[in-house]
Structure prediction request, 436 residues.
Amino acid sequence: MSDESPSTTKTPDVRDIAHGVRQVAVGEPFFSYAYLIDSPEGIVAFDAGVRGSGPEILAAAGGPIAKVILSHAHADHRGAAPELGAPIYCHPDEIADAKADWPQSYLDFSLIENQRIREGLPRLNQTWDSGPLEIAGTIEEGDEVAGMQVIHVPGHAPGEIALFRASDGLLLAGDAIYTQDAETGDPGPARVPNQFANWNTEQARASIRKLATYKPTSVWLGHSTPVTGDVDAQLEAAAGFDENRSAGNHAVGAPRTAPRQTAMSMTNDETLVGRWQLDPRRSSVEFRVGHLWGLVTVKGRFEDYEGRLDLSGDPALELTIDAASVQTGNRKRDQHLRSADFFEAENHPRVRFVSDSVVLQGKTLKVRGCLFARDQSIPLELDAHVRQVDDELEIEAATSASHRKLGMTWSPLGMIPPRSELLVTGYLVPATEQAA
Prediction:
């Protein structure tokens, strides 16, 4: 969750995604990707990320860039283009916007429902952009760039393009497809880009269907996670995605096998007596923390953890988390969270909560205890709602904690609020059973 100034040279976050193609992650909190493609004429950059990320991209390239190809001319794709010292190319239908000041005339931020995003995203775009570009030439449908075919996919932008390599099915699609909820920044299923940023949303749907006819094996995007696996089915779903109908279905964590409950419905308290353990196959340990002064909420989860609830004698609750298992859907951010700025997972691999008291009040377990991390501890209270499901218990617990008091004080200019929210949901099984 770093936010260094544009002049600070950062260690590039580079990922080999296919033969001769690398992905470079730049910018925050909404990461953008530039792609470096090896070619006989030198390294070709497909997109350029945000202003100030040029040194990262050049460091990742390990040498000069031969040319820059823009998927489109939005601020978070053209921002660092002038910093790469190479001629810049785009589709003929994108020239007018590439040579003009930001924002493009069709952008309508008023369509964003989330007020913080609606008010903050225009300001972020202004910091990402470097201004009008000098365009050296154009590329069109059917042209070849670094061994990849140019495909015109208008909709998100009038001159949006994608690059396709038939030999391995690799598709670089820019912003023709989203796998991110623009209202929250959370990863999600493949979808048509959010209407606030589109030149023509229905045309964008048609362009996704067009891309599907090429039968790509993997689709790498301008932001968030790639489309892999059953690509055909995901592209078909993306073309028909309804943002309004799908709202609220983007929670991070394991799918539940029973409907989520917000309160305990328990008719026989004696059935709770015994020792219980959290079943990781059907549970999740998640967190939420504000970023950019609360403008953005970063959501994540821990992949490895153990939880126990003892109601056989003196009630007790324990949760042990592997700090290195933190996942937010962004590799660069996850590495930062594991570093000394936050969990310092190498030296302090465990985060633990141990209860001092567990009291059943009506339909709620009132829990008091201590949270331990980085050789620090803080008192913590939480409410846990438990519901009997056959011979198991469904549990939901939520609390908030001051990560700063645990030594996680990294917050340039105070951009990260001092408290994080922790949520545990899932199923408890008798401790004598093995959670499969």
Summary: Confidence is low (pLDDT under 50) at residues 1-8, 245-268. The CA atoms of residues 113 and 244 lie 10 Å apart. The chain has two domains: 13-239, 269-430. The chain has seven helices and 25 strands.
